[in-house]
Structure formats: structure tokens, C-alpha cells
Amino acid sequence: MKKILLTIGAVLLVLGCACVCAAEPLKAFVSPFNVVGVANEDKLQVALQHMMASRLDPAYVQVVDSGENADLLINGSFTQFGEIFSFDVLLTHAQDGHVSKVFEQGDKQADFFLALGRVTDKINRDLAAKQTAAPSDISSHGYAIAPSATSPRVNRQQSSTPVTPETYVIPAQDTGKSARALPGLQIDGVMRGLALGRKLASGEREVFVAGDNVLRMYLLADALTPLDEVSIPLPGTIVALDTADLDHDNVPELYVSILDRGTFTSSVFDVVDGKLKEIATDLEWAFRGVGMELESRTVYAQKLGTDGQFYGDVAVLSKSGNHFEAKQSIALPRFGHVFNFARIASPSGDPLYLVLDVDGHPVVSTLDGKEIWQGEEVLGGSETILNKPETIPGNLENYRWLFMEQRIMTLPDGTILIPQNEGKFSFGNNRAYNRHTMYAFEWTGNFLAEKWHSPKISSYLADFAMDFNSKEIILLGVEKRPSLLYKGRSSISTKRIN
Question: Which keywords describe this protein according to UniProt (predicted)?
């Protein structure tokens, strides 16, 4: 009996040690940052290395002086354009080669340490999630087990292009057939803009949608509950909708891009007691919000010229009280404008631009405008016209049109979401889309590689947004076109990705 008890005690001791070992902090090496666009780059490289290392949670990492035997390699870059800056960090786990990416950006120098703190918090949350819930480290009995001694490690000399894991995958098989959006979340009228607000304690989410001349606010849960509606005076037309919390008061602003007789006369709204309140009007820019979180989102702005084309560089919008100013201009590559660009990163973390050209072909360029790749597939596609027809000498069609473009969304792990609208009768300036597909890509360093795509949905995708915390894509589709006796119908559907 005594031997049995001793044996059981020894087994429990071994299991306990295994659990403790599994919970030990990872040995992490923070390399000097790659710094672009600032003076004294050498000093800042080391300073950022030390600042990030000091902010990492010791419960999850033990900072070491060399990457030789490190479990985790942390490679960061800091890029600055004027006052705009960005932190981009690659986390490489030596045990299995898993690579994840996090980034944060700011639009003024006062945000520097806040952005550094936010990106480090994201790293700590990422490590906490992996250490506490990694299924590969749990046995079938629920015990934490130590990694195998034969587990592969990253060959740092040979692995020049790490493979990003497919973190974001829509769990649906592509049957090659079209599918309809789930019924129940129908909206009267043809809507063209969608933006998300706050997630409330009740689990409901604020959702804003826009038609040609109407702006609506809903609560989204199992159904859509209307809260408020505002009309936009004719001849103004809403072309885009975005949200951001530029003043960091935990109440997002609603940025409404309005086109009126060849120029932008845009507005900004606040939500006050569940109602939409206009706080600025007749602004001369179109808006596009970029970023996962409302409080860290950047709103870009650009004017429309007298020729019906976008004028000047894209600028960053700033808010002071109810006053808005566009400054810190960014020169985009050829074809780029406020509605059709996104920033992506190379496998080594270097920033690049991705734009869709006038025909919808994806084009990747360096920050100085040098094109390094152009795809053949046509992506995006919008029916919203941004300028009135204008006669162009020598143009066989006699008209040149400028169309709105679909959002290009870059996720924290580097996944790039780009929708594709299609239609049997869509060619040239004649656009009548009736089905769409959501594509996910990654930049390999040489081309955009497809990671997954959704089934084809039998509706025109007018706009989409993403709730990063719940990993849900919210889609605004047009299901029925208007007629003399019918005002059309739109719908909001949700796709969860994992």
C-alpha cells in the first residue's frame, strides 16, 4: 500500500512539474528596431528596443540578450511620415515557426508613448492567449504537456519568408454555387454605406447605414432596432460612411462623405442620448477610416478637384473640439486615392502600399511610389459614382467616370481582405452587380497569395466592416433594386471568422 501511495505521489509530482514548466515565461529576444524617416536612427533603434523590452509582461516572457536560444523573436520597425508614425512588430515563435503581426499608429508626436504602450499591450495579450489556451499543448486528458524534444525549430538562416498562419478563415465550403444572405436583418431602400459604433454592455452594437440622402442608426443583435434617422438635403448625396474616436472620449464620431454638385460638402455627427447630432458640416473632404479599434483609428481625407478627380495628397484628419483640420499629407502611388488604398507590410516588416487601379487590378508599390507587382484579377467594384460625366477629347466613350471603391482591410496578422463584386451586365461605366465574394490574401514578398475566399453571395456588396474583438465581418448587401413602385431592399448579414 505504501508503495502505491509513493507511486501516486511521484506521478502527481511529475504532472505538477509539467504544468509548472508549461507555464514558465518564454525566453524572448527583442532585436533593435528598424527605423525609417527620423533623424538619429541608430540611437532610436536601441532606445525602442529597450523601451519595448521593459514593457513586456514578465509573467509571459523573460527577456534575454541574444536570439540564439530564444523561444520568441520580436522584430519591430518604426516608420514616420511627417508627424504620422507607425509601430509594426513581428512575433516569431521558434518552437513551431508561428508568426503573428501587431501594429499601432499615431498622427502626432504626443501619441508616441501611448502607441508604444498599445502595441506592447497587444503583444502581451497575444502571448497570454497562446500560453493559456494553446490546444497543441494540451493532452487528451486536459493536462499540460511539455513540448517534444524533436519539435522543429525555425532555421533563421534559411527561413527568409515566414508563413503567416491562417488565423482568419470563414468556416464555409465554397460549393461554386451562389448563396443568399440570411433573412431577418432587412432594411427598406438601397443602402450604400456601413459603419460600426460601440459594443454595449447589453451585447448590442451600434450600427450606422446610409442611403443616397438618409443616415440611419440601429442597434444590432438578433434583429435590427432603429434608433434615429437624419435626412441629407438635396442635391447632396452620401457616398461613404466611417466611424472613429479621434478625441478619445469613448464616443465615436460618424464621418459622412457627402458629394454635392462636383465637390464634397461632408458632415460629422456625434451620438448624444441615442440620437445623431451634427457637429460639423460643409467640410471639403471625403473620409476613410483605417484601423481595427475606434480609439486608434486614423481618418484620412482628400479633396475633389474641379475636373471631377481627386486633388492633392491624402491627409490625416485631426479634431479639436468641433473643429476639423486635414494636415500631414501622404503622397500615394499612382492610381491611389482616399478610397482605394491600404498599407501592407513585406515579410520583413517593411511598409508598402496596395491600391486598386481604375480597372480593379491590385498594385503593390513602395513608399516612394515604385511599383513592384500588379495582379491580373479584377477585385473590388462599386456602383457609386463620385463625379459627373465629363467630355474628354480623344476618349471614344466621350466620358470619364470616377467610381467609389471597396474597402481594403489589413488585419493584424497581415491578412488582407478585399471583396469582389460581379455582374453579367457590368462592363466599363455600366455597373449592375448582383453577386459578391470576400477574398483574403497575404503578401508573400513577390505577389498576393490567396488564403481563402467565401462562397459567392447573390447580392451586390455595397460596404462591409469588421468587429475585430468578435472576429465578425458585417456585410451590407443590396438584394432588390428599386423600381417605380418599389424602393428596393438591403440587408445586413454577419460572417464569423476564426
Answer: Signal
